[in-house]
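Friendly challenge for the regulars: who can give me the structure tokens for this chain first? No prize, just bragging rights.
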Amino acid sequence: MKPTPIGAFVAGVFVACGSGAEPRTAPAPCRSQPEISDLSLLPKDVPVAEHGRVVDAEVEGGYVGVTVVSETQVVELYPPLARALLDAGYEIVASDNEGFEAEIFFARGRATDGAIRLREGPCPGEVTIKLLYGSPDYRGKRGAP
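First reply, four minutes later:
Bragging rights claimed.
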């Protein structure tokens, strides 16, 4: 009998959960990623860096991906990020804010577009901001700073 993906998932859950007979240990402390120092890849008019620690920035396929970890909650981050995009001349083409997670999709003309995604974590009290930003400035570039 060939194992199925759902069977492997269920088996993984049972292995991960164990039988309950093992002694419980305290969870490992949460460790957030370290901050990077070279912010040269970040777009100047999308101010995600001012809301936390930039922990990753990389270019691929004409887009820069930026990850910021903030100690500000989603409901407090969403309004200033949306306002900054509008003030910089971007159009918000779609958005969703559920309080614990949010997305803002934006564009300026046909050449520049992007998305900001806000999610709780990785550690308690933190929010991860993910920016995906494409413009002619990033076409032909690749890698991290």
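The chain has two helices and six strands. Helices lie at 5-17, 74-87. Your move, everyone else.
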